[in-house]
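Ticket #509: bound-state structure for 3-methyl-2-oxobutanoic acid.
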Amino acid sequence: MERVYIFDTTLRDGEQSPGASMNVEEKLRMAQMLERLGVDIIEAGFPISSPGDFESVKLIADKVRGLQVAGLARASFEDIDRAWEALKGGADPRIHTFIATSPIHMKHKLKLTPDQVFEQAVESVKHAVKYTSNVEWSAEDAVRSDVDYLCRIIEAVIDAGAKTVNIPDTVGYAIPNQWGQTIAEIMNRVPNIDKAVVSVHCHNDLGLATANSIVALQAGARQVECTINGIGERAGNTSLEEVVMAMKVRPALLEMETKINTEYLYPASRLVSNITGLPVQPNKAIVGANAFAHEAGIHQDGVLKDKSTYEIMTPESVGIATNDLVLGKHSGRHAFIDKIKRLGYDLEKEQLEVAFSALKELADKKKTIYDEDIEAIIAERILRLPDRFRLVYLNVTSGTVTVPTATVQMEVDGVVRQEAEFGDGPVDAVFSVIKKLTGKKPRLESFNIAAITGGTDAQAEVSVRIEESGVMSNGQASDTDIIVASAKAFVRALNKLEHRKQKTFMAHM
Ligand code: KIV
Ligand code: ZN
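RESOLUTION: The complex was predicted; output attached.
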C-alpha cells in the first residue's frame, strides 16, 4: 500500500466559502477535531491576510502538536516572514508559499512576465527554507499553465529547497483523464521530482474535484489537499471524506492508504456544519443525511437480507451510529461522557457538566435523545461563544386569527433590551424585532429548516444566510422549537457578519 498524505485546508480555503468565517476559538476546536481524525497537515490560515488569521495560525501551531501546521504566504518575503512568525512555536510547522503560473494570471493579475514569476518563485522558496526545511510551493492555476514552463519552475523550486510541490486546479477546470496525464507528465519530466512529495489541490467547479484528485494519485501524487464537506472557494474543494473513503473502499484497485480514523468523519462533518452554518446537502456522499438511507422497496428488501447488496461501506465505518437511540431522561453521567467521547469531542470537566445538565433539560422536553441532539447541545452551549448579540428571551403569538407578534429580549454589547413587532408570520415577526434591537438590516438570502432527528419531538435545525453591503454570513442553530431555532440562527448569522466585517480578507488567489 502506498501512503497518501492528507492536507486539510478547511480552516483556510474552506473558510473562503461565502459566509463561512470562523473565530479563533472555533478554529482551534476544529483543529483539535482534525487531529483526532488523523490528518497529516492542516492549513490553519493565511497569517498576513488579517490579525485574526495570524492569531488563529499561531494558536493552532502552539497548541495542536500531533500534526503539521501550515500557514499560507504569497511569494513575498513579507508574507513568508509573517507566516513564520505565526508558525514558529509549532511542533512541525510548514510554510506554504504560492504564485500563479498560468499566462492568464501572470498577465492580468500579477502583471509579471514568466521570467519574473520564475525568479520570485525561486527566491521565495529560498527565503522560506531559511526558516524551515518543511516548505511547500504551489503553482496557482497550474491547470491552465503551460506544462513545459510548469516542469521547469517545479524543478527550480525543488532545487531551491521545496519539499512538497502542489499542483492546483484553482478554477475547477480539469477533466480526469487530462489531469491524470498532466500529473504523469510532471512526474516523468521533472528530473528531481523524487526529492519532493507531489500534491494536488482541486476545486469543484465542474463537480470533478474528487475524481481529479484520485486520478492524480494514480499518476503519482502522494498528497491531497481537501476540506471537510468539500467546503471552499466557490463550488468548494475536494471533499476529504470522499477521497479518503475511495481509498478505503477500493484498496485492491487503488493500493493506497491514509492514516485517517474514518469513524471521525461524520463528527468532523457535523462540527464544520455547526461552526460555519453551512448545511450539508442530504445527498452528499459519505456524510449526507441520505447517504445510508434506502427508499426503494427493492433496495430495502435487499438491505434487510444482506446490507452489502446496496451498501459499499458501513455507516459505522464513517462514524454514523445506526443504533442512534442512545440516551434519555434516566441516563447516567458515565453513559453520557462515553457518548461524547465517541462523537469525537474532548470536553473539559466544567463543559461536561454544562452539557449534562442541558441533556437533562432536553430529556424533559423530548423522550429520545439522538447523537444529533447531543451535538446540537455541544454546539449551542459549549462551542459557540458569546458574541456582540445574545438572545435572552423570546415570546411569540401566532395562529389562524391573530396577527403574528413577537417580543424579544436581547443583550446587545452587554446591555439588555426588549422590543415587540408584528410580522407576516412568527419567524418574520421575530426577525423584525431582532433587526430593531440590533440596528441591523441585512437581506435574508435563504432560510432552511430541517428536522435533524425523527418524530414530532425532533430538534429542528435552521440555517439562514444573510447579506449586508456585499458581505455574506451563515448562521445555523437547533432547538426543539422551530421559532427559537430560527431566532438563534439569525442572531448567530448577525454575530458572524460582525466578525466577518472586521476581517480584511484578501481577494482569493
Ligand atoms: O486554489 C488554489 O490554487 C489555492 C492555492 C493557494 C493552493 O488555494
Ligand atoms: Zn484553493
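RESOLUTION NOTES: The longest strand covers residues 389-397.
TICKET STATUS: resolved
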